[in-house]
């Protein structure tokens, strides 16, 4: 019997977890670290999840667990951004297809304060309740709700200003 597993409980194969939750985790990573670093955060999330998956209790909330890991990996990537760049012969193309389609939205999300960006991503992209967002980000349920509300209000104001200019 695996540690943390109940006898006779059938657990999803990890490949199925990746297929089911992968797109949601990628959306969260894009919102938190931006489209350029999102794939790295996604990969790091699922590598860490793969290592811990055998010990995960059968009744665990997979979505919240994966978002928690993604949040930690995103924080790690944000910290690493401060390091010195590595010289290369050719500069790689940085614009991803997702950024080309809705770059203005990603730019607006990236300009949100950290707490608002995280709350918007976790609630509206990952579908987590505010209580779980508070556990991930280290605040209260009311603070998570307020951060998401303020973030959405700021995004709407940005969108309305851009539409008025068009």
TrEMBL record:
Name the record gives this protein: RNA polymerase sigma factor (Sigma-70 family)
Single Gene Ontology BP annotation: DNA-templated transcription initiation
Domain RNA polymerase sigma factor 70 region 4 type: 105-153
NCBIfam families the record matches: sigma70-ECF (TIGR02937)
InterPro entries: RNA_pol_sigma-70-like (IPR039425), RNA_pol_sigma-70_dom (IPR014284), RNA_pol_sigma70_r2 (IPR007627), RNA_pol_sigma70_r4_t2 (IPR013249), RNA_pol_sigma_r2 (IPR013325), RNA_pol_sigma_r3/r4-like (IPR013324), WH-like_DNA-bd_sf (IPR036388)
Domain RNA polymerase sigma-70 region positions: 18-82
Classification via PANTHER family: RNA POLYMERASE ECF-TYPE SIGMA FACTO, RNA POLYMERASE SIGMA FACTOR HI_1459-RELATED
Recorded family membership: Belongs to the sigma-70 factor family. ECF subfamily.
Record keyword Transcription regulation present: yes
Keywords: DNA-binding, Sigma factor, Transcription, Transcription regulation
GO molecular function, one term: DNA binding
Species this chain originates from: Actinophytocola oryzae
